[in-house]
Amino acid sequence: MTHRNRQLQVGALARVEGEGALHVVIADGRVEDTELRIYEPPRFFEALLQGRAYSEAVDITSRICGICPVAYQSSAWNAMEDLTGSDVGERIAALRRLLYCGEWISSHTLHIYLLHAPDFLGYPDAVSLAKDHRDRVECGLALKKAGNAILEQVGGRAIHPVNPKVGGFHRAPTNAELAPLAEQLRRAADHALDTVRWVAGFEFPDLELDHELLAAYDADRYAIERGDLVTSTRVSFPVRDFLDHVVERQVPHSTALHAQLDGRRYLTGPLARYTLNSDRLSPRARQVAAEAGLGPTCRNPFRSILVRAVEVVYAVDEALRIIESYERPDPPAVDVAPRAGVGHGVSEAPRGLLYHRYEIDAAGLIRAATIIPPTSQNQAAIENDLRRVVQANLTLDDPALTALCERTIRNYDPCISCSAHFLDLTTERR
Amino acid sequence: MNVVLDRAGLDELVDVLLADGYRVVGPTVRDGAIVLAELDSPAQLPAGWGVDVEPGRYRLRRRDDAAVFAHSAGPQSWKQFLHPARQRLFTDDGPVEEAPVRYAFLGVRGCDLAAIATLGTVLRGSAYDERRAGLLVIAVGCTEPGGVCFCASMGTGPAPGPGYDLALTERLDDRDHRFLVETGSDAGASLIERVVHRVATPDEVDDADTAVRAAAGRMGRQMPSGDLRALLRESRESPHWEEVAQRCLTCGNCTMVCPTCFCTTTEDVTDLTGEHAERSQRWASCFELDFSYLHGGSVRTSGASRYRQWMTHKLSTWYDQFGTSGCVGCGRCIAWCPVGIDITAEAAALAAEGPRDA
Amino acid sequence: MRADPMLPTPYRVAERVVETHDSATLRLEPVGTALSGARPGQFCMLYARGIGEVAISISDAQPGGSLVHTIRDVGAVSRALHDAGAGTTLGARGPFGTNWGLESAAGHDLVIVAGGVGLAPLRPVVLGALARRGDYGRVVLIAGARGPDEFLYRDQLAQWATGDDIEVERTIDRPTSGWDGPVGFVTEPLARLSVRPDRTIAFVCGPEPMMRYSANVLIDKGVPAGDIRVSLERNMQCGVALCGHCQLGPLLVCRDGPVVDYATAGPLLTVREV
Amino acid sequence: MTSLAVWKFASCDGCQLTLLDCEDELLTLAEQVTIAHFLEASSRVLPGPYDVSLVEGSITTPDDAERIRDVRAQSKTLITIGACATAGGIQALRNFGDVEQFRSVVYASPSYIDTLATSTPIAAHVPVDFELRGCPIDKGQLLEVISALLVGRKPDVPDTSVCTECKRRGLTCVAVADGTPCLGPVTHAGCGALCPSVRRGCYGCFGPMAGANLPALTGQLRRSGVDEDVIGRMLATFNVTAFGAVDDASK
Ligand SMILES: Cc1cc2nc3c(=O)[nH]c(=O)nc-3n(C[C@H](O)[C@H](O)[C@H](O)COP(=O)(O)OP(=O)(O)OC[C@H]3O[C@@H](n4cnc5c(N)ncnc54)[C@H](O)[C@@H]3O)c2cc1C
Ligand code: SF4
Ligand code: SF4
Ligand code: SF4
Q1: Can you tell me the distance from the alpha carbon of A269 to that of D129, in angstroms, rounded to the nearest whole number?
Q2: What is the DSSP-derived secondary structure letter of residue C202?
Q3: Chain D hits for C50, Cβ within 8 Å
Q4: Exposure of B354 by Cβ count < 10 A (0-12 exposed, 13-18 middle, 19+ buried)?
């Protein structure tokens, strides 16, 4: 076999959320093409939102992704409240942030333990990993469970929470109802710190990416459930200008749309958030990040698992802080009276920025909806990373190279359910 | 001898019960209704709250006084404590032993007191016996019947029948806020001795009696007179069931809120390993399609037959099975039916169809 | 402490006899204390650990504490019971309900009509009558099954058929090669039977329509409804009149049945969906 | 050992995620069954046939219509999990619209996208042995079905109204006490009455219960002042086809 012309085939990419394929063409020892091919069937959410009530977007868009439903819900209510200029007040906002922390903990931990760590340790899945490292996996599951406990207590359900709505919540939990969560989270904090230390011991291939970065920004805290936008070139803009900067286009090989930031390839997600906002992390998160060898920025996508682990520490800290200072909002929601116009909302889904835009008519019905999920924003970056990884590792044999490609993709925890969905790898070496 | 407690005396009574280790269950406001819940303090009583109740509609209302018992039946009944919605019966290790609980029920109305006795007859020989044995009952005479109440026509109220330890009648006027007390047991009598009270004046006793008696005339609903047991028995093939079935959701709410509906389904389950097996039971409803399931299909598939089963059981076949009416007239099934189906109106409709050849 | 009415008593399968392709008879021996006093017509709640519990009739009167039950596999629980091999531990509660009251039929002719697995609860009636043959007049058994291989207790039936103590009529639903006996539902031989209406007690068990038709045939012959005893079936969860599932109008079948005279049962079975 | 496969069609992944959300049971489960095909969780794929297949998602492409036949052929027991698989999901709203127009709303050049005009439940394509309802399914019910299957028990998954669960929890009915529109009386139980527990009306995640009396409920909604359009939208969500079928049958 020559290393100059090769053809690689991978049936289905595993341990990603959704379904897709990867196609790599190598000719004359050069990577000619890398395509992340998304074949998740489209579900036409933007179309089926037309004619629905403004209040329904929260429940409907949640169903785009079972992994990060709170992200969809948050971006939706942010957009609706942007349209009406509603202010839900600090108490409701805090409860929402608590809910979102639950999703970060649960979703990040899912990715770290069940989807990504097996790559670093050479196992096909977490169940096999547990055969040799049961304590480890149990620690991960306990951490994940703590995240889900927040989602269940505050949101009413871990997947597609029922309690949140535009304006706030249907019912706000009492202090007594939140108390057991704090107990569980204090134990989870130890698990979260352990996770960082454990992951820090993994071996990370070298790769330094040069994409533009985009993340939400909040002057007072590490942005999660809302924020303005900031880029690595220190351009900042309000959410309502999002579409002036980000343009989506369709590519032939994918049912997901690809996005560009001011005409350039860019990245959102943990690396972008960390690099742009790490100074806003909690002291404990910053400290453990430093211990784990992370500087104030991180541009190696293989280290994203580490950044996620640090974000979990932060989310646990935040959740505890919020519960400790919780004051039950009464009423649990503010009235949001719809009016005709356009509203924009973003939030930081575990995998990156999630943008919603709605055009509402005078009756409060949605006339048009645009949703830009993180994976379509990141797709160009992922393809670019792949190209560089393959180019740098042409000496590897096909199985090893294929595995490395899959790993590269998993760095992004690409949520194909969101973008449309994922993976099946074909590599052609010509 | 009749005595009187004031509001502070009532609070003291609750505190004494709590201090004695009773789990005091009484009315309190939660999530838009007056529910029955364990009270940590007499301050949780629904002072100043009333309710407006109609078929399929219940609303909390602020009163212009501070009465604590001036409301009619809410979404739950006492059966949730004596006959819980879910009970574990046994595991591989044998029967599930229940730590004995001493409940003190505060604010039991005549209808509900009758229901506790009715359930006692049905569930004799089950764990209900023990739960009931340790029970202390503080009943209340009803002076403020609700829009769907009809205990007077079922003979269970408004004055509570036997079976209580203490019975209170709440009176509020320009002078004071007082509770006329009747004792029904030695336990009740010795409780009263431990709280501040005074002797009731004859006027006060009269006033309380009159108020309770007057309540009988202010019931929002009334069962048609006549032999309901025979009426239902003879109405098995009435076309009226089909008519009710058009409206009935077969949702089962009426049975779940009914203070005497006792039916349960057993669940035998194992865990994933199959190494642990256990049995529990949960409230069932004759409106559930599977309730009458026999191999090959359910006996009662139509909504009409299920509604007929329910109403006939309450008003007629209960006599055959347990010697009394299964309906005590609390009105819960009417209030909490989402479409407001009214058992008294359906009984009247059947009666109006006139005599049939049995 | 009150004995828990829902707690099964352990029994071990001592013997399992295959009856038909989907039915088997189990002889159960108590592991510890035995349930006592089982009478023909009554039933036990048999428990397959972790799978569930169902009502199964007493199908043989046994001295001592052992129980004999014939089970037809129709669903998850009955399958687990049916499949239980010798040595398996099962649970049993009971015996529950009314019985056939065979003694009270002394001095009468007995007409026993069984459809399918309905023969199981009736076998002890036959055995009881044979044991005290002199107490009864004519004894007739009409047993129906879907096919020749679907009869329970085939050897016993054949043996009874050869003697003079009992008249046995077997009928199958549809003609089958190798079967030269009567074909048709049990109501056909029953209709041909000449009975002394005032001196006959009938015992009927089988699918509900079969019991209705049989009772009607007997009533047409002048047998009073009160002298026709049927065994009823309703969904049963507890067996002890606590769960409410087995209601049939005024009856709690587990307590007031399963054996009920047709004067009581008739009006309930002829109205739809009671 | 029983082999378990998990398959995905058009869906949000939430139902299969429910399996991974069984934090306390996941490792035990992995000891009781061989997880033979579960792409979201494992890159190890064992060949069929499979004893039990859990199928998530609806059929929306010609390829998927083929693939589900293949899955059926390889599976002894096929269990559909969730509203997408049992009723077509929220994406079945397209069945009532113009899919060409849908495509053009989402994609500038719709010709790239190969999609059917309908989103259909699995049972419309192949026989299904058991259906687990919900958007998403309930974790407890999922474990119950798997545990029951492993020992040969009938799963305890009652097909009654959400109201029965609501009442067993001792909740106050939001329809009666708050005047909130609630689909509980016609909706299949299973969630444990989540919405009423947060004082919200049930929005029908589990689809219609057996014998749901839809006209009686819509009548009640109308009488309490809910607009016809709103009623239409209440029923047109994750189980739009299933509620639609009940509605049609009642006409
Ligand atoms: C008094 C009485 C005596 C019986 N005697 C016998 C007997 O001797 N031999 C025999 O094979 N069968 C007998 N049966 C019928 C037997 O109980 C059912 O076949 C059995 O319950 C089916 O349960 P399953 O779980 O296998 O089936 P499924 O169809 O899966 O039933 C599920 C559940 O429904 C209920 N159920 C279903 N069918 C019946 C039924 N026919 N009767 C009562 N409950 C039912 C049970 O709770 C059962 O667990 C008797 C029934 C009764 C009421
Ligand atoms: S009315 Fe129905 S649920 Fe209530 S006790 Fe009777 S049979 Fe049981
Ligand atoms: S009568 Fe009312 S509460 Fe009862 S089942 Fe019918 S609709 Fe539900
Ligand atoms: S709140 Fe909804 S689910 Fe609960 S009882 Fe009322 S109608 Fe039924």
Answers
A1: 41
A2: E
A3: 151, 153
A4: exposed
Across the interface, do B35 and D172 touch by the CB < 8 Å criterion?
yes
Instruction: Report the residue count for chain B.
Output: 358
- Distance between CA atoms of C54 and C48, rounded to whole angstroms? 9
Strands C43-48 and B136-140: unpaired
CB contacts, 8 Å: A126 with chain D: 41
Q: How far is D152 from chain B (nearest CA, A)?
A: 10
Question: How many angstroms separate the CA atoms of A430 and A424, rounded?
Answer: 19
Q: Which residue of D has its CA nearest to C51?
A: D153
- Contact between residue B157 and residue B151 where contact means Cβ atoms under 8 Å apart: yes
* C-alpha–C-alpha distance, residues A62 and D237, integer Å: 12
Structure tokens at C205: 């068990």
Residues 6+ apart with CB under 8 A from C13: C26, C27, C28, C84, C85, C86, C87, C88, C89, C90
For chain C, the farthest-separated pair of C-alpha atoms sits apart, in whole angstroms, at 61
CA D201/CA D230 separation, integer angstroms: 13
* Bridge partner residues of A168 (DSSP): A165, A333
- Contacting chains of D (3 CB pairs or more, <8 Å) are A, B, C
| ipTM exceeding 0.95, yes/no | no
> Which stretches of A268-363 are assigned E, i.e. beta strand?
341-349, 352-360
Task: Point out which residues pair with B198 in neighbouring strands.
Answer: B4
pLDDT in tens, chain A (430 residues): 344 565 554 444 555 555 667 778 888 878 877 777 666 667 788 888 999 999 999 999 999 999 999 999 999 999 999 999 999 999 999 999 999 999 999 999 999 999 889 888 989 889 999 999 999 999 999 999 999 999 999 999 999 999 999 999 999 999 999 999 999 999 999 999 999 999 999 999 888 888 999 999 999 999 999 999 999 998 999 999 999 999 877 766 555 667 889 888 899 999 999 999 999 999 999 999 999 999 999 999 999 999 999 999 999 999 999 999 999 999 999 999 999 999 999 999 999 999 999 999 999 999 999 998 888 788 888 888 888 888 888 888 887 888 888 888 888 776 654 443 223 445 565 5
Which residues in chain C touch residue B301, judged by CB atoms under 8 angstroms apart?
A: 273
DSSP label of A336: -
Q: Which element (helix H / strand E) includes A171?
A: none
* A148:D23 CB<8 A: yes
Query: Residues lining ligand 3, judged by CB closer than 6 Å?
Result: B 248-254, 287, 337, 339, 341
Three-state secondary structure call for residue A136: helix
Nearest Cα residue to atom 8 of ligand 3: B251
Chain B residue with the nearest C-alpha to that of D160: B288
Write out the two tokens for A378: 């990141």
How far CA D127 is from CA of C74, D73, D77, D137, in Å, comes to 21, 10, 10, 20
The residue contributing the CA closest to ligand 4 atom 7 is D184
Query: Is B271 within 8 Å of D147 when comparing Cβ atoms?
Result: yes
Report the distance separating Cα A70 and Cα A96, nearest Å: 9
**Could you tell me the distance, in angstroms and rounded to a whole number, from the CA of residue B309 to the centre of ligand 3?**
12
Residues of C in contact with D160 (CB under 8 A): none
Residue whose CA is closest, atom 6 of ligand 3? Answer: B248
CA–CA separation, D180 vs A170, rounded Å?
Answer: 11
Expressed in angstroms and rounded, the spacing between residue B278 Cα and the centre of ligand 4 is 29
Q: Determine which residue's CA is closest to atom 2 belonging to ligand 4.
A: D184
Label residue D43 by pLDDT band (50, 70, 90): confident
State how far the alpha carbon of A133 is from the alpha carbons of A245, B172, D41, D44, in Å. Answer: 46, 70, 17, 18
Mutate to test the interface with A, among D9, D11, D13 (most CBs of A within 10 A): D13
* Rounded CA separation D50/D34 (Å): 10
**Ligand (nearest to CA of B314):** 2
